[in-house]
Design a protein that fits this description.
With 224 residues, the chain is mainly beta. The protein has a single domain, classed as Ribbon (Umud Fragment, subunit A), CATH 2.10.109.10. It contains two helices and 19 strands. It has helices spanning 9-29, 176-179; strands at residues 31-35, 49-54, 59-61, 68-71, 80-85, 88-99, 104-108, 111-114, 117-118, 121-124, 134-138, 141-145, 153-157, 162-166, 182-183, 187-197, 201-202, 205-209, 221-222. The strands form five sheets. Strands 1, 2, 5, 6, 14, 15, 16 and 19 form an eight-stranded antiparallel sheet that branches. The protein has a four-stranded antiparallel sheet with strand order 9-8-7-13, with no helix packed on it. The longest helix is centred in the first third of the chain and has 21 residues, at 9-29. It is globular. It starts with 8 loop residues before the first helix and ends with a strand.
């Protein structure tokens, strides 16, 4: 018997739209890719690191909105997060949370004090360090300064529903020290993993890595 191999309109529409719905749902609710455009998070994140943000880390947002459908956890000190810049919500920033709601924070000669207690910080030598920078181990992650002694910040209290963020490249980061606190509603997700990294992007396509400059040693690294 002969079979009619022609598809139906519902089958055609399903074949066309199903992948789009899957990709949209994945990016809306689970994972969102971002490319690091600046050196504010060096040495944790380098320029042209491609990362994935875990958008389910803290809850689920209404699509195209900063309102939560459900929120099951809150950011913790030390986590690297992606958020909408408070002054320009269409722009996304990535920084490390230094203090959460209710914390008192200050910086004295590069040492961070949370609620009067200093963060554990130790000077270390980094073989690939750029000249003119000092590297320190702070609460389990690396930070760098050009002049640690000149880094000062007066004591402030983080208001309810906000957090204080900072770049690991302490003297070359535009962060809460300059523009204030991040509302929790601006949070997008937690930086989870570097899935691709390169020194240069293609001149003809600035959003694509130059394959000849891929940093193979950074692929699939966890963001800590």
């Amino acid at each position: 018997m002969s079979r009619d191999l022609r598809g139906t309109w519902p089958q055609a529409l399903l074949t066309f739209f199903a992948p789009l719905v899957f990709i949209f749902g994945l990016r809306w609710a689970i994972l969102e890719p971002y490319v690091i455009p600046s050196g504010s998070m060096i040495p944790t994140l380098l320029i042209h690191d491609h990362i994935l943000a875990n958008k389910l880390a803290y809850g689920l947002h209404i699509p195209f909105s900063s309102s939560w459908i459900f929120q099951w956890s809150h950011p913790r000190r030390g986590e690297v997060v992606v958020f909408r810049f408070p002054e320009t919500p269409d722009v996304f920033y990535i920084k490390r949370i230094l203090a959460i709601s209710g914390d008192e924070i200050s910086v004295q000669n590069g040492t961070v004090y949370i609620n009067g207690q200093p963060n554990d910080i130790q000077s270390i030598k980094v073989s690939s360090a750029e000249e003119g920078f000092e590297y320190f181990q702070e609460n389990g992650h690396l930070v760098r300064y050009q002049s640690k002694e000149d880094s000062q910040y007066q004591t402030v209290r983080v208001p309810e529903g906000h957090f204080f963020v900072i770049g690991d490249n302490r003297d070359q980061s535009y962060d809460s020290r300059f523009w204030g606190f991040v509302p929790e509603k601006n949070l997008v997700g937690r930086a989870a993993r570097i899935w691709l990294s390169c020194d240069k992007m293609l001149p003809s396509a600035s959003f694509i890595c130059d394959p000849a400059t891929i940093r193979w040693d950074r692929l699939l690294l966890d963001v800590k």
